Amino acid sequence: MSNQEAAGSGGRPIGHMSLNGAAVEVKSTQWPNVYQLGDSGRLTFSADLVSHRAANGEMLLSHDNAEGLARMYGEWQEDRLTLMRGISSNHFSWDGIVMNGLAASEGSDDFPGATMGGSGSRWLPTSMGSSDGALMTSSGIAIGNHNQTMRAAMSASQPQDNVLLGMVLRFDAGANQNLAVHFLNPGEILVKGPVENQDFAISHLVVSDVSNPAGFGAMRYEGTAWDADLMPAALYDPSGKHGETGRQVTQDWMDRSAAKINELQQRRLLWRDVD
Q: Taking the CA atoms of the chain, what radius of gyration do you get in angstroms?
């Protein structure tokens, strides 16, 4: 049994929930304050979301949580749940993704909890691809934590086209697929990591774009197998502690990444979506 398949099966029934017009059994899991939906141990949600328990065992959530969970459950049941995660090009996990085809967290604890604040969880934060603005949100996350030299490529004063700022990962999940998924809230869905490349793909590359008022844009990516076409990680130096050496290393990386983006476009592996 894989790590994903062993996510949380075997719970005892503790109630039910109405999702998309059907009663879905809710079960306990091996984790405190985590409930399982249906018979699959690979779909769970946070017990804290339950706002009321009726005498007949029905569990109720707030409107926003209920709507988001119902949408996720429906897409899961139909094997069309798409989740997105933005990664900046200086992120600690970048080289593992492009060199080893492995999307991983810093942590190793097997608990589907909030990923901020040093929780040490192995679960990865994502957002639902069907949500409004999901690609833009993931792209915005992908430009975070860059140093000033890199951020200048997006500025009006020192723009530089086609600098590789980050990527958007796509995870395909569902009742007949491998991924274990946890609904933390409508804006954050967790996927149990580490995730191997048969269960995720690089959907878009996020690059600086002088023609875009935001200074960046997402380009659809059709890369090759994992994935010699992409750059190694940029220098992580958001505080500028490496000084002039860091600025020069970053600029050299930016120039090479822009050349790489141009090459990928010429090879028709990368293009801008047209609305």
A: 20
